[in-house]
């Protein structure tokens, strides 16, 4: 049984441990779960992550209650029966989905997952980040999944629904060491129907456009605006940089997909929300890493499983703790900080998938996919 200390890094070490345990079939015990948080132990969102991982792997579990600081997880066999999970209120549905994505390498048949809770809430990836940034990037190295959002869930009521269909995968090595230049930006702006009269979704797009124009960014911008039913009023905006679709090859370049997001808050003008997402994009453009810093956290597991190299914009606390869990499962993953050409990127203004304080120094994460 793998023995892990979950004191640092919030919920990410737990999600990574669950994913690798499902894939490898190896049990683990994690103590001090979220020990450095103001409210340590499992929250409802983390219990839902454990629940879906246990359902897929037919696992024996101990300590899967809200507030628990120790979790034991012993998987048996992976199966592709449909899985449902209710996070409750506005707990992140997208992070529950993220936990299960690596199971693709252990599946023989497609797996369907439906999660109710918060689809667009702070400190986690918005649904449109998962759909329009993460999904196409994963597809580039052979991991296919479909995302649908039947109903949006904002803070504090949640009540949203997120559905995922994960296809069995044999991923190719992840090679992302050089960044293709963006050739277009896509803006996905969503707001509750109750905010339609105030044109919140439209104004978020204008905030993005104005901030980029002021910074002198001259790229085509395509926008999508949605007004949705929801239990709580809320809004979110995701900016996706795309480019280099014809530049994939052995030189480390690949189709470019990077995402930047921000959430609406009471008392914050919609234009400001849009400008926050644009600020995160501008920080990234100031460096030369091919992925955004939040995607960097999420790709570490795939580098371990499939091999390859990814140059990341900053060595964040989440990167360090995530690598610690991955190495504890026996994967040989190296981190070379300060690679030539890595200028780093400032911390994004928008609350997005994964958080942590970066050193401002880029690095290359590398693995041959072995243990």
Automatic annotation (TrEMBL):
What domain of life is recorded for the organism? Archaea
Nucleotide-binding among keywords: yes
The secretion signal range is none
InterPro entries recorded: RNA3'-term_phos_cycl_insert, RNA3'_phos_cyclase_dom, RNA3'_phos_cyclase_dom_sf, RNA3'_term_phos_cyc, RNA3'_term_phos_cyc_type_1, RNA3'_term_phos_cycl-like_CS, RNA3'P_cycl/enolpyr_Trfase_a/b, RPTC_insert
Which stretches of sequence are listed as region Disordered?
341-371
Task: Cite the binding residues for ATP.
Answer: 294-298
Where is the major localization of this protein?
cytoplasm
**Biased composition annotated in UniProt, kind: Gly residues:** 344-361
Please state the Enzyme Commission number of this protein. Answer: 6.5.1.4
Using the record's annotation, list all stretches that form the RNA 3'-terminal phosphate cyclase domain: 7-329
Task: Name the enzyme's class.
Answer: ligase
Query: What cellular component GO annotations does this protein have?
Result: cytoplasm
> Record's HAMAP family?
RTC
Q: What is this protein called?
A: RNA 3'-terminal phosphate cyclase
